[in-house]
Amino acid sequence: MTGEHYVRFHELARTLRERCPWDREQDHRSLRRYLIEETHEVVDAIDALVPGDPATDAALIEELGDLLYQVELHATIAEQEGRFDMADVTSVVHDKLVARHPHVFGDVDASDVETVLANWETNKRAEKQRSSVFDGVPAGLPALAYADKVQRRASTVGFDWQDASGAIPKVTEELAELVQATESEPDDPDSVEDELGDLLFAVVNVARHLGLDSEVALRRAARKFQDRFTAVERMATADGLTLGDGLDAEALDAFWERAKANPS
Known about the structure:
single chain, mainly alpha, Helix Hairpins, 4 domains, 12 helices, 0% strand
């Protein structure tokens, strides 16, 4: 983005704040939901990317622009209130990134990703004078991302499995404890929920050690299920049937197996 492009963009945000009733009424809190929505739409556009497809590139460009406007709008609101402006935002992030990359801008040696991440967390704790490795972990993160984050924080001080081979048996252990809880304490939902949480936490640990994002993996599995069930709906319709209208489990399973055997 050239300086001219940014000036136009900034002036647009100011104009909308002055002339659009909706923009004028917004504040930082009212915009939270839109910031979250736009972030999810960026993620969807990334997931839909097809190499060499200008249409999916264009979709990502549009969604990144919408997200960027949210950042600009927050900065514009603060500027009009005399608190800070976009120059402050970019200056702070610039200085922070330089400080967090001493292996690039300083004389610290970091030859692998693990060392880079460990240095990042060490520098972050020092900057913010944090007494606990968990200080600053956003409580509002989605649960899988939150679990991954606290595991990574604990890992920075050596509390971790060496690799996935140590984490995988924990999944088996936690699954057995969940089964036991459902059988011995079926009327104690808190106990069952605790064991289910432990199982999910263990699964996230395995994903982390495999270099995978559990959020992405679960989303992919959910979409695969959705695609297959949509195929089941199409098959039922083609046979003159309607789901939920007298179709038993056996019939649904038959459609499901057909959908699995013939992925679209």
